[in-house]
């Protein structure tokens, strides 16, 4: 079997034409088979679904181009739990007939062995149900051969000794061992076919020793006649299972969380290495936007491209990469590859925007083509072009690009050094703006990490955040110009700053719009949440705490580590009161700045025109000088009566119902009531009662739960002092070093919360969730002479001016292929019955999505774009379900009429197309 394309392609490029021809011959004869076919065996808990699709598409299209083959089998044997999205999206929608893996909860495996339910039909999506199901096989023990059948050199298993002149002739004994092991496994599954995976971690390095023994076993076992042994592949095994016409049990939901023993829940890695997780998520959204801009400009066969970033993001989805379960030097290598890819894609973005903003007249003069800069460290308030001093003759031009398919109203925030500024929009009108003071932690973080990662002093002069309102068209950009104000009447409003009085038991309120938050002055804590538009009034509390990691040293005394979360003692983090709150008020947003202790800072924001709370946290270095590792949590508590129930997303797609201390597939024995109730969160988590729902969205993968009714808990950062004995062989103790002085990693991130009447939260989760994943892309240019607005294209939208995508549809791929055709993916964002308005069949008009272009052909493809959808459906295996399981009734979007060119999408449907034009007109020409 050939699995991870990143490794295979590296090997393939180094081979001679003669050897390549031999490999292709083996593939054609079925002796070598591509399975999974992505660039890596990806993790299933911590990646975003768009990244999973992209990395698999890269591998599948290489296999198709080079070998003319389409993988049929998913092979996810090592990830630490398995997602519903893997089953239906990365399985059935890819054209896979089956999926195999090894790791499930030890209690679940024991029950399935007894019930003969290790092989099931898995329906991962409630919305797509039987139309996107897959045959799924779970190994009885692990992904090793049965005990006694590993044949690495100097291995412990007895080889077959078939020379009867030697002392230790053992053919019959080893045949009996083989038959006994086969019968044991056969008694755990259905039909008379079983599969052994030969080889395992670090024990498949000497192929000759393995194949010599396997050849002998096949020969002598078949002579014996009790068992028929043969070399096979997962596809052959799948076909044999299908031919048996067996009825199989139904599986819904997912396989999280995973524990391999009582005190070892692999739920820590949902948060491990939060800095890397945040970097991957940030670049994922950037890559989506960069591909769009590359298409608008026209893909170049030479010069910068997005392929380097694509490759780096692809391998970063590995189950020991974005998961945070690699060693430190490996994590640094992933980050380095990502940064190299970003630098290449950054050039694509800059050249595309330069072309799109240049007027026809200016494009004739090379000197007039604008030069753009970007600010990848804007998250830590570092942006050299915006921190420059502006004069009456020198202004800053900002291009804000919106990669979403609908118009976007947002607040842009950039660090600036001057308070005498004015902001103009694309039409030269003054835009409302506000200056907010930089917090001390923002300056400290920027100064330290710029030095750490860029190797140069920050030399920063920024004193404020400049915030201003922005309106950006779909798949397009708007221009904003920041210049020195000519009069004090027109300059940005400076926020008022005050410190609440402490000691009188008082409260203070902040928020200028519908949403208002009430804080306790003494405690510095949120107390009440009010939204006057939808009449929500709720007591609410937001706080921090930490778990000390269990300081075990082996699997018996299990420690918290990169994989495993095993809390020992829970502590609250109370404000120490040494630094008073700072409340900042302005016309666009209000903020509360808090230094909760020396290593935990928070900024809470409420925007006047928005109805959610933004919480920006800065955590670290986590202190460990007391000898205990710590796992930092945030808690949002309300009085909602949630009956142990909460909902978490699956890789950013479907929300799955969770019930505390409960599993639908078996009677759970609770040994770890905290770690055993943690689940991966990529988009968000919510709870609800009969009248209200509380939602929290995240900016990267984290672990989370609802351990008490009405409460949501997120784990934001981890620093530990013991390895958990699961293969890393290194403590999860991330540090950052400057001039050979190291200290624990500081992580900055955001989460967002909102309370809605029950049934109304989905609109915010889905719409704002897209905005979190795809923030506005900002590019900066200096202007001399205040002529930009009259000499450049200042606003642009790639779609028809009269059109916008429906609010329940997202463009998740818009990419020009090397062939010149365009790869388009459209995703319905809602599940069946999730929202009364948006959980419906929805249309997208391709003619309006591509105005000014003549579409000559639209071909619907599988999700990974390696085969036509209709051909995939023709060859799909129709499995039989046992009992009264539902096998039909799912409505999906119909065929695309070649004249009308309208695409229908049903709830949770993603449709993939290759679109051909009569020519690829450059948008700016």
Task: Kindly describe this structure.
- This protein is an alpha+beta fold and 925 residues long.
- Helix content is 22%, strand content 28%.
- It is built from 16 helices and 46 strands.
- It has a ten-stranded antiparallel β-sheet. Strands 18, 19, 20, 21, 22, 27, 30, 33 and 34 form a nine-stranded antiparallel β-sheet that branches. Strands 9, 11, 12, 15, 38 and 39 form a six-stranded antiparallel β-sheet that branches.
- Strand 7 and strand 8 form a beta hairpin.
- The protein is globular, with a radius of gyration of 29 Å.
- The mean pLDDT is 93.
Entry summary:
With 925 residues, the protein is of the alpha+beta class.
Net shape: globular
Portion in beta strands: 25-35%
Largest sheet: 10 strands, antiparallel
Helix content range = 10-25%
The helix-and-strand class reads: alpha+beta
Overall mean pLDDT stands at: 93
Query: What's the tally of helices?
Result: 16
Strand order of the largest sheet: 17-23-24-25-26-37-32-31-28-29
Strand runs, count: 46
Q: Report the uncertain regions.
A: none
Ends distance: 48 Å
Our Rg estimate from Cα atoms comes to 29 Å
């Amino acid at each position: 079997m050939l699995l991870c394309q990143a490794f295979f392609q590296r090997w393939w490029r180094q081979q001679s034409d003669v050897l390549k021809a031999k490999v292709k011959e083996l593939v054609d004869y079925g002796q070598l088979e591509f399975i999974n076919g992505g660039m890596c065996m990806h993790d299933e808990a911590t990646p975003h679904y768009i990244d999973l699709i992209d990395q698999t598409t890269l591998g599948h299209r290489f296999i198709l181009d080079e070998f003319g083959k389409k993988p049929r089998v998913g092979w996810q044997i090592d990830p630490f739990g398995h997602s519903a999205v893997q089953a239906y999206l990365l399985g059935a929608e890819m054209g896979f007939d089956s999926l195999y893996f090894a790791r499930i909860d030890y209690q679940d495996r024991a029950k399935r062995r007894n019930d003969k339910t290790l092989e099931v039909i898995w329906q991962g999506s409630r919305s797509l149900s039987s139309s996107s199901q897959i045959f799924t096989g779970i190994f009885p023990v692990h992904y090793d051969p049965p005990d006694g059948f590993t044949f690495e050199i100097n291995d412990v298993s007895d080889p077959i000794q078939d020379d009867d002149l030697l002392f230790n002739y053992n053919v019959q004994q080893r045949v009996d061992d083989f038959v006994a092991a086969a019968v044991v496994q056969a008694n755990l599954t259905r039909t008379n076919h079983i599969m052994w995976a030969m080889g395992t971690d670090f024990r498949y390095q000497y192929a000759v020793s393995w194949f010599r023994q396997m050849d002998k076993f096949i020969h002598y076992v078949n002579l014996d006649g009790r068992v028929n042994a043969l070399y096979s592949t997962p596809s052959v095994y799948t076909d044999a299972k299908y031919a048996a016409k067996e009825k199989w049990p139904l599986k819904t939901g997912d396989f999280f969380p995973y524990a391999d023993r009582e005190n070892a829940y692999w739920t820590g890695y949902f948060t491990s290495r939060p800095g890397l997780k945040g970097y991957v998520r940030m670049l994922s959204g950037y890559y989506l936007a960069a591909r769009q801009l590359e298409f608008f400009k026209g893909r170049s066969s030479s010069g910068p491209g997005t392929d380097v970033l694509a490759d780096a993001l692809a391998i970063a989805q590995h189950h020991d990469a974005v998961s945070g379960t690699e060693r430190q030097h490996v994590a640094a290598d992933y980050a380095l590859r990502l940064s190299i890819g970003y630098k290449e894609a950054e050039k694509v973005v800059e050249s595309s925007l330069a072309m799109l903003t240049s007027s026809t007249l200016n494009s004739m003069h090379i000197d007039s083509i604008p030069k753009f800069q970007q600010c990848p460290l804007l998250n830590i308030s570092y942006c050299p072009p915006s921190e420059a001093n502006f004069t009456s003759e020198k202004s800053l031009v900002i291009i804000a690009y919106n990669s979403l398919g609908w118009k976007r109203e947002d607040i842009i925030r950039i660090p600036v050094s001057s308070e005498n500024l004015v902001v103009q929009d694309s039409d030269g009108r003054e835009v409302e703006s506000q200056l907010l003071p930089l917090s001390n932690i923002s300056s400290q973080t920027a100064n330290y990490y710029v030095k750490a990662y860029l190797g140069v002093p920050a030399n920063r002069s920024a004193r404020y955040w400049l915030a201003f309102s922005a309106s950006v068209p779909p798949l397009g950009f708007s221009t904003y110009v920041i210049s020195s104000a000519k009069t004090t009447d027109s300059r940005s409003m400076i926020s008022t700053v005050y410190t609440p009085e402490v000691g009188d038991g008082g409260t203070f309120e902040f928020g200028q719009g519908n949403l208002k938050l009430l804080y306790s002055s003494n405690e510095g804590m949120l107390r009440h949440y009010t939204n006057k538009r939808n009449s929500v009034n709720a007591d609410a509390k937001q706080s921090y705490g930490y778990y000390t990691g269990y300081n075990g040293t082996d699997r018996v005394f299990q420690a918290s580590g990169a994989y495993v979360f095993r809390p020992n003692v829970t502590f609250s983090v109370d404000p120490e009161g040494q630094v008073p709150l700072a409340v900042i008020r302005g016309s666009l947003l209000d903020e509360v700045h808090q230094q909760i202790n020396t290593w935990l800072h928070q900024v809470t924001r409420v925007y006047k025109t928005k109805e959610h709370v933004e919480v920006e946290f800065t955590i670290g270095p986590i202190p460990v000088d007391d000898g205990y590792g710590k796992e930092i949590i945030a808690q949002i508590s309300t009085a909602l009566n949630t009956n142990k129930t909460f909902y978490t997303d699956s890789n950013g797609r479907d929300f799955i119902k969770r019930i505390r201390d409960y599993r639908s597939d078996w009677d759970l024995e609770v040994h770890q009531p905290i770690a055993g109730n943690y689940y991966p969160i990529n988009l968000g988590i919510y709870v609800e009662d009969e009248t209200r729902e509380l939602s929290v969205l995240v900016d990267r993968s984290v672990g989370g739960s609802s351990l008490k009714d009405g409460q949501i808990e997120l784990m934001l950062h981890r620093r530990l002092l013991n390895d958990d004995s699961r293969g890393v062989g290194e403590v999860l103790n991330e540090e950052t070093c400057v001039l050979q002085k190291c200290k624990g990693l500081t992580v900055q991130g955001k989460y967002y919360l909102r309370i809605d009447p029950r049934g109304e939260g989905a609109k915010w989760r889905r719409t704002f969730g897209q905005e979190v994943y795809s923030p506005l892309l900002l590019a900066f240019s200096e202007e001399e002479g205040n002529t930009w607005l009259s000499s450049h294209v200042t606003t642009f939208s790639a779609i028809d001016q009269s059109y916008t995508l429906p609010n329940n549809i997202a463009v998740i791929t818009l990419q020009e292929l090397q062939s010149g055709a365009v790869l388009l993916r459209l995703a319905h964002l809602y599940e069946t019955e999730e929202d009364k308005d948006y959980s419906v069949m929805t249309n997208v008009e391709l003619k309006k999505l591509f105005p000014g272009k003549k579409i000559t052909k639209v071909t619907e493809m599988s999700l990974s774009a390696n085969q036509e959808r209709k051909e995939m459906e023709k060859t799909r295996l129709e499995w039989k379900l046992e009992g009264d399981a539902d096998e039909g009734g799912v409505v999906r979007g119909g065929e695309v009429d070649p004249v009308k060119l309208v695409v229908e999408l049903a709830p949770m449907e993603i449709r993939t197309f290759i679109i051909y034009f009569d020519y690829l007109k450059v948008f700016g020409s």
